[in-house]
Amino acid sequence: MPSQIEVKNLSKSFGNHQVLKNIDLEIPSKKIFGIIGASGCGKTTLLKTIIGFWEADSGKVFYETRELAKNENSIRQIVGFATQDNAVYPKLTVKENLEYFGTLANVPRNTLKSNIEKVIRFIKLEDAADEIAENLSGGMQRRLDIGCAIIHKPRILILDEPTEDLDPILRREILSLIKRINQDETTVIITSHLLHEAEQLCDEIAILHNGKVLRKGTPEQLRSLFSKDDEIHLITLKRNYKAIADAIKTGAVKKIDRYSDRLVIRSTNSEQTVKKILSCLNRQKDKIVQLDIRKPSLSEVFINLVKKSGETPRGH
Amino acid sequence: MVKLLEVIKKNFKILIRSKSSALIILFGPLLLILLVGTAFNTSTFSAIKVGSYSGSYNELSNSILDKLSQEDYLIFKTNSPESCIQGVKTGAYHLCTIIPDDLQVSDDANNTIDIHVDSSRLNLVYAVKGAIINSLGERTKELSQDLTSIVVNQLETAKSALQEKQGVLTSLKNTNEQFTSGIVTMEQSVGQLGDSDIVTGELKNKTAALKAQTNETRAFTELEDLISVLETQLSAVKSITDVIPGLKEISIAESSQLVDLERTSGKLITSIEAIKVRDVETLVSPIKTSTQSVTTERTHINYLFPTLIMMVVMFVSLLLSSITVIREKISPAYFRNCISPNKPLLFIVATYLTNILIIIFQLVIVFAVMAAIQPEILNTLLQVSGAVLIITSAFILLGMIIGYLFNSEETSTIGAISLGTILLFFSNTIIPLETLPASIQNLVEYNMFVVSDSLLRSMIIFESSLSNNVQDLYILLGHIVVFIIGIAVIYKFSSKRFNIKRYFHK
């Protein structure tokens, strides 16, 4: 798959603090690309550097083979950017914000009006089109911010922690909006420290830690890269987990964690382990309430990768 | 152009939708002109409080205080000189006059009035001191006129009396001359009598000889009696002849004194007549001073108008432009502007145009009100507008630099006010520039406020044209060029520096 954005050996420092360290990334076209990492790991700096807001200390960024440093204005024409701060004017209405940013993004006057209407519909703010932005709810403001970022129909949309500070319902709304934008063949680059969210949304993910990309790939690839083990999540009726743990602790089982309502077993051979569990339950005349076999979550991958890197996340 | 208009439109909407900003923009200048207009629409001082102390007021001292009262000074009599002076220190009185007890106009009396002022009130002290000395001077002049008129009148009376007696003196002199002449004639006549004894002797001898020749005794006896009478009378005449030289000498001396007196009297009259200035007013004030204003007589507001305009332009430009820039900078939307496919110049120009349009709107209000007060301002309105545009541009650009340099609205506002205050302080508005050391004066001549104020004064008060003020214009244009370069440099760095701070605060 051809990469739409290519980041080569990108480094950025603020004073003595090096925030980005020789970043290499290839972001595929028309996909949702996630950059995940702990707070302060350099996600926002990376995005602001690849849009050219910050000048890189070294390295280059290419958009569709064009170098950013040499084609800044034309590249910004094809990129939309939504920040985590809602980069809109609070005293302007929804329509006025869209009109203003549309004009700045060189949207022709004759198409601007129809673009505004489409975007308003798209971000579902029809009823609030003439509302002053500061009177909108948090979710509506976030949608307006995204609307301002897509008013000029960019081919690439960069979203910096778009679900930050939102409640679960609003978060779901925004994620759905992002998916719809992507369905419109827009490449979406998204940062988040909410790993399960990225896992659900992104086609590809780069794990950023202390200014370095630790790993990159699809969520599945990342999970597999880290471990071929399975996780067995078991809930039984009698919850006599000690007996089960005693019965399976040898062989393929690498780790057993007991939680209040469930048993989590890490196994290199889940089929064999499940058989042992069933046998044990049969002996004890217990019944299964829930049994899941899954790969380790991205969170676990992330935590293990960070541990492996030996560096404490900045700000932790 | 469309983008520029869109940014300006956006700036206006944001400004107007912020109620406090809108109020300040619309009503700020109106309020200012109303307050200043009401306060300064006079040509005199008013409610100047004068403390006064005298151990014993008399008619003269009271008349001086009455004179001050008539000129709208508020007089406060104090119980002691200390409380009077203390009143000046505490600001209860603008000045204190200590009048000697029983003030009198005489050679040996103490008639010095001490005036105590608070020299720290630089802007007021000279004006008030001058005004009160003028008022006291007027009373002193009145007294002086009274005294001088007495002297002049006495002189006139003496001259008239002398002139009147000049005829008597001449008559006396003539009489004396006749008298002298009579004495001389008498002396000569008496002299011609010769030796009377010889004559009478001969007469006696002849008589005796004739008597001897005749017997007519009786006739000769009568003749001898007559000779005897003649002898007696001649003897009397002879005795007068002895007095005549004395009388003649006295008469000549008297005549000489009379001539001398006449000459002295004539000289006195001539001397009195030779006094050219006999007018009391002229004698009291031999040299009159009259201050002629090079402008037509107006109220304070007319003279203050250029400075008022400058104050509005300077503070509004500095504050408004710095706040516009800083509000834009701290707005989350600022980042989106920065990453839009536009050059920073668009936003700089838009900010400048927004500010200048607002200030022009405010100045239109101020000028409209001023035109109602002083219609002649309309004669130079076009030229003045050109000057104001250049001045406003310079201050807006300076305000924008402040906005780009600072990182919060508070610090930016403090920065703008501080800068405005410094520019104002080092101008003629508070204290005359001439009070500053020469080296600082040279520097202050380039102070934008001083240059602009001088330009506007020249154009508004003296109705001179822009072409007559080329030097001021060049200085302002020089400032503008420097500020534009400054903004270009600072814009790039300040925006990034500011965001670095935000980055680390997160």
Keywords:
heterodimer, A: about 325 residues, alpha/beta, six-stranded mixed β-sheet, 11 helices, 14 strands, B: about 500 residues, mainly alpha, disordered C terminus
Distance linking N and C termini of chain B: 37 Å
Structural class of chain B: mainly alpha
Oligomeric state of the chains in view: heterodimer
Rounded radius of gyration of chain A (Å): 23 Å
Reading the helices and strands of chain A in chain order gives EEEHEEHEHHHEHEHEEHEHEEHEH
Low-confidence stretches of chain B: 500-506
Q: Describe the sheet with the most strands of chain B.
A: 4 strands, mixed
How do the helices and strands follow one another from N- to C-terminus of chain B?
A: HHEHEHEEHHHHHHHHHHHH
Q: Which residues of chain A form runs of ≥5 with pLDDT under 50? A: none
Q: What's the short version?
A:
Chain A contains 11 helices and 14 strands. Chain A is an alpha/beta fold. Chain B is built from 16 helices and 4 strands.
Structure in words:
- The complex is a heterodimer of chains A (316) and B (506).
- By secondary structure, chain A is of the alpha/beta class.
- Chain A is built from 11 helices and 14 strands.
- A 6-stranded mixed sheet of chain A has the order 6-7-8-3-9-10, sandwiched between helices.
- The two termini of chain A are 37 Å apart.
- Chain B has 506 residues and is mostly helical.
- Chain B has a 4-stranded mixed sheet with strand order 2-1-3-4, with helices on both faces.
- In chain B, helix 2 runs parallel beside helix 11, helix 9 (300-330) packs parallel to helix 12 and helix 12 (381-405) packs across helix 13 (409-425).
- In chain B, 24% of the residues are buried.
- The A-B interface holds A 14, 39-40, 44-45, 51-54, 72-74, 76-77, 79, 81, 83, 85-92, 96-97, 99-101, 103-106, 109, 132, 148-149 and B 2-3, 6-7, 10, 13-14, 17-18, 331-343, 496, 499-500, 503-504, 506.
Which helices and strands appear, and what pairs or packs with what?
The complex is a heterodimer of chains A (316) and B (506).
Chain A: E1 3-14, E2 17-28, E3 32-36, H1 43-50, E4 58-63, E5 66-67, H2 72-76, E6 79-82, H3 94-104, H4 109-122, H5 138-150, E7 156-160, H6 168-183, E8 187-192, H7 195-201, E9 204-209, E10 212-217, H8 219-226, E11 230-236, H9 241-248, E12 253-258, E13 263-267, H10 270-284, E14 288-294, H11 298-309
Parallel strand pairs in A: 3-8, 3-9, 6-7, 7-8
Antiparallel strand pairs in A: 1-2, 1-4, 4-5, 9-10, 11-13, 11-14, 12-13
Helix pairs in contact in A: 3-4, 3-5, 5-6, 8-11, 9-10
Chain B: H1 2-17, H2 19-40, E1 48-53, H3 59-70, E2 73-77, H4 81-90, E3 95-98, E4 114-117, H5 122-192, H6 196-213, H7 217-274, H8 280-284, H9 300-330, H10 333-338, H11 344-373, H12 381-405, H13 409-425, H14 438-444, H15 448-460, H16 470-505
Parallel strand pairs in B: 1-2, 1-3
Antiparallel strand pairs in B: 3-4
Helix pairs in contact in B: 1-11, 2-9, 2-11, 3-5, 5-7, 6-7, 9-11, 9-12, 9-13, 9-15, 11-12, 12-13, 12-15, 12-16, 15-16
